[in-house]
Every structure is written in structure tokens, then in C-alpha cells.
């Protein structure tokens, strides 16, 4: 099969012929139709993602969508011909999605939404799982709660805004002035920055000083801050003095550790349900890229998700 290979960090990907995988026990062989590109893929390719190392040479690509070609022993939830999507590789030595086929742990997959294309489905897994783990698994978002999403126009931010709204929360999102229209179009209130307001839940997708500001925006007595980028050194005193709490999200852990993978498949079932109910929308950038143009796709990452067409 054809695949784009990263031979060394910081070098362009190269098109190569490699062996087509065979599904082992618990695995599904997927004919990949689309590979979603995330900023994390670029960091891995540049050798700048210490938390997401990938032994080289390697096939990158964390997100994918495609059609099941075969199933390995012990797989009962999927059958040849099924359309599937998932966050299935590209880190920790697991083959990524910039290839024609991948043998994927069935626990990481869900049936793709029926109402959107596989291109659109490939843009969902990493960002939706990250949003869900923060808002639902950690913060336990409830109807009527006030939710602040820091960085509401980014990949995770857009998912968090829509998921919070679908949960019945009152949502505010921060962003640059140029992002106001797209944030308000999702149904959230726009703020350039927070000044003195308090929220039941604050989801930080930016990190750094924004996470420090998020601690100060948590409601006294019970506010909760979640961050997908809480990797720096931060003073917890502002949070403690508000009698509020904090959770971190590290979405890659099941891929890296091999533990808890079924939770990702279950979360993506919820993503498909929300998409098909019209409560979750995907924003793709204009323009299309073939597998051979994966380097150009990496260079195009910006506003909106980029997807590589594999099939």
C-alpha cells in the first residue's frame, strides 16, 4: 500500500510503498478515505511534541475515517463495509492514517455519522474527544450552568462550545475580534477577554496566561476549571482561594498506554449521535489535498480543519 512516511523529524513526508497490514485479534482493517490533520500532527513531524513521541520512520496522522475491509478474531461490533472513524494512531509507535490502510484497535472506532461525509468525519475525533473528556468526564456539565470556553474558535474550542450548548448550558467563548462572528454563529456569547465574571465551568484550550486567567474566572464555591494545555508552571492559589477545582485533559493517554481505549469509541458514538441530530457541525477549510499532497496539507493548517483525501 502507499503511505506518507516521516523519515526524520523536521523533514518533509515521503511517499513510499509499504506492506499492507493484517488485522490481529481485536483489530479492524480499515480502507482509509480521509486523514484529519491537527496542529499536534505538525508538532510531531517537527520533533517538538515530547508528550506524543513517535518512533521514526513512521506513518503519521492521528485522526481518520474510512470503510472496514476486514475484521480480526474477536471483533463483533464491526463488519466489512461499515463506515467508521476514530483517533487511531500517529503516536506511540501506532501506525497513523496517512496511508491507504490501517489495522486499528476496534475499541478506538465508532460508526461514522450518517449525515456527513467521511472527509468531515475525519476532522472530528481528536478535537471532540478532548472537548468531551473536559466538559463531560471531568466537569460534569449540566443544563443551566454557565460555561466559558477560552479559545472558542479553535478546533477543540468549537467542539466545546457546541457540546456545552447541546448539554443545555449557557455558553460564553473568548477569541479575537475577527472570530466574533463565527463564535456567535454557534450560539455562544463572545468576549475578547474575561474581566471579573465568574462561571460554573471554564474550559481552557489555550494554556499559559489564559489558564491563569481561567483560575480567576471560576465561580466561588464549586467552580471548575478544565485545561487541555495545562503543562506549564501555574500558581494554584487563585483557584484555592475561590474554593474551586481543576482537572487536566490528556487525550492521547489511551493510545500511548493501551488502557481505556473503549472509552474513546464510546465518546465517538456520542459525536455521531450529535452530528446526526444537527447539534454538532464541522468546519473544514476550503481546498482539497491528496495523500501525495500531505506536506501541503500540513502547511495549510489554520482556521478550520484540514483533511487529506486518501481514497
Helices and strands in order:
Layout: E1 2-6, E2 14-17, E3 27-37, H1 39-46, E4 58-59, E5 63-71, E6 83-87, E7 101-105, E8 109-111, H2 118-121, H3 125-138, E9 146-150, H4 155-166, E10 170-174, H5 180-185, E11 189-191, E12 201-204, H6 209-217, E13 224-227, H7 237-240, E14 245-248, H8 253-257, H9 261-276, E15 289-290, H10 294-299, E16 306-309
Parallel strand pairs: 9-10, 9-12, 10-11, 12-13, 13-14, 15-16
Antiparallel strand pairs: 1-2, 1-4, 3-5, 3-7, 3-16, 5-6, 6-8
Helix pairs in contact: 3-4, 3-9
Can you offer a commentary on this structure?
This protein has 311 residues and is α/β, with parallel strands linked by helices. Helix content is 27%, strand content 24%. The protein has 10 helices and 16 strands. It has helices at residues 39-46, 118-121, 125-138, 155-166, 180-185, 209-217, 237-240, 253-257, 261-276, 294-299, and strands spanning 2-6, 14-17, 27-37, 58-59, 63-71, 83-87, 101-105, 109-111, 146-150, 170-174, 189-191, 201-204, 224-227, 245-248, 289-290, 306-309. Strands 3, 5, 6, 7, 8, 15 and 16 form a 7-stranded mixed sheet that branches. A 6-stranded parallel sheet has the order 11-10-9-12-13-14, sandwiched between helices. A 3-stranded antiparallel sheet has the order 2-1-4, with no helix packed on it. Helix 10 links the parallel strand 15 (289-290) and strand 16. Helix 3 (125-138) crosses helix 4. The longest helix is centred in the last third of the chain and has 16 residues, at 261-276. The chain is globular, with a radius of gyration of 19 Å. The N and C termini lie close together (12 Å).
Amino acid at each position: 500500500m502507499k503511505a506518507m512516511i516521516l523519515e526524520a523529524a523536521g523533514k518533509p513526508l515521503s511517499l513510499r510503498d509499504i506492506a499492507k497490514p493484517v488485522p490481529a485479534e481485536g483489530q479492524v482493517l480499515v480502507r482509509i478515505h480521509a486523514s484529519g490533520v491537527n496542529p499536534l500532527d505538525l508538532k510531531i513531524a517537527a520533533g517538538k511534541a515530547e508528550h506524543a513521541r513517535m518512533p521514526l520512520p513512521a506513518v503519521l496522522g492521528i485522526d481518520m475515517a474510512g470503510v472496514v475491509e476486514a475484521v480480526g478474531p474477536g471483533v463483533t461490533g464491526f463488519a466489512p463495509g461499515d463506515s467508521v472513524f476514530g483517533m487511531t494512531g500517529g503516536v506511540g509507535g501506532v501506525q497513523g492514517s496517512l496511508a491507504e490502510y490501517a489495522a486499528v484497535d476496534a475499541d478506538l472506532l465508532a460508526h461514522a455519522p450518517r449525515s456527513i461525509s467521511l472527509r468531515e468525519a475525519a476532522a472530528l475525533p481528536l478535537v471532540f474527544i478532548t472537548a468531551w473528556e473536559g466538559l463531560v468526564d471531568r466537569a460534569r456539565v449540566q443544563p443551566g450552568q454557565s460555561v466559558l470556553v477560552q479559545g472558542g474558535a479553535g478546533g477543540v474550542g468549537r467542539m466545546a462550545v457546541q457540546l456545552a450548548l447541546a448539554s443545555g448550558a449557557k455558553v460564553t467563548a473568548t477569541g479575537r475580534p475577527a472570530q466574533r462572528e463565527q463564535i456567535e454563529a454557534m450560539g455562544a456569547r463572545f468576549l475578547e477577554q474575561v474581566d471579573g465574571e465568574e462561571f460554573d465551568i471554564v474550559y481552557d484550550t489555550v494554556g499559559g496566561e489564559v489558564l491563569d486567567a481561567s483560575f480567576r474566572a471560576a465561580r466561588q464555591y464549586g467552580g471548575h476549571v478544565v485545561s487541555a494545555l495545562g503543562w506549564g508552571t501555574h500558581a494554584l492559589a487563585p483557584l484555592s482561594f475561590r474554593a474551586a477545582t481543576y482537572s487536566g485533559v490528556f487525550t492521547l493517554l489511551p493510545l500511548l498506554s493501551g488502557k481505556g481505549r473503549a472509552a474513546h469509541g464510546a465518546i465517538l458514538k456520542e459525536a455521531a449521535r450529535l452530528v446526526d441530530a444537527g447539534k454538532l457541525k464541522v468546519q473544514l477549510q476550503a481546498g482539497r489535498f491528496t495523500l501525495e499532497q500531505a506536506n501541503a496539507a500540513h502547511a495549510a493548517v489554520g482556521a478550520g480543519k484540514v483533511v487529506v483525501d486518501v481514497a
